[in-house]
């Protein structure tokens, strides 16, 4: 693994566990078994590391949404399928999402990155909802507003999963609740 990638992986783990402000470059260098100067050869600052992590998540989500859209056909069950895939994506990238949720208000770039991910998620869901409405799978409603409500609910649920992983997993219940609400025309 390249040094830059190792720094990012260790930084992601540390920031997700102890927070951005509590993570120092000295701790990061020690854990990565490199000098602090090596960190600065790859990144301008600790903020640059954070921005790189957030931008990586944004790119991964963009790729994920393109891939998922190309594989799906609008048919009954599509909403549940997409919600399950969204939850699986978050589970796979939980450290990055934990960082996004905890650093949102810390730095302007964090806010911009979070907004980018959320905008992508909402647009993806709105497009899917519009297609489902056009084919009669769900009743007509405001796709943008419904997508925002869905994303807000999912983010709240994700915070529970990320910060209290020992609690019971309600993923199936969340998906079923959203599916039922959409079928009834929220």
Fold and architecture overview:
The chain has nine helices and no strands. It is mainly alpha-helical and 186 residues long. α1 packs across α6 and α5 runs antiparallel to α9.
How do the SSEs run, as a string of H and E?
Answer: HHHHHHHHH
How big a fraction of the residues is strand?
Answer: under 5%
- Which runs of at least 5 residues are low in confidence (pLDDT < 50)? none
Distance between the termini: 48 Å
Task: Work out the number of β strands.
Answer: 0
Radius of gyration: 19 Å
Biggest pleated sheet: none
Number of helices: 9
Helix content estimate = over 70%
Give the overall shape, derived from the CA principal axes.
Answer: elongated
Mean pLDDT across residues: 87
Which structural class do you get from the secondary structure elements?
Answer: mainly alpha
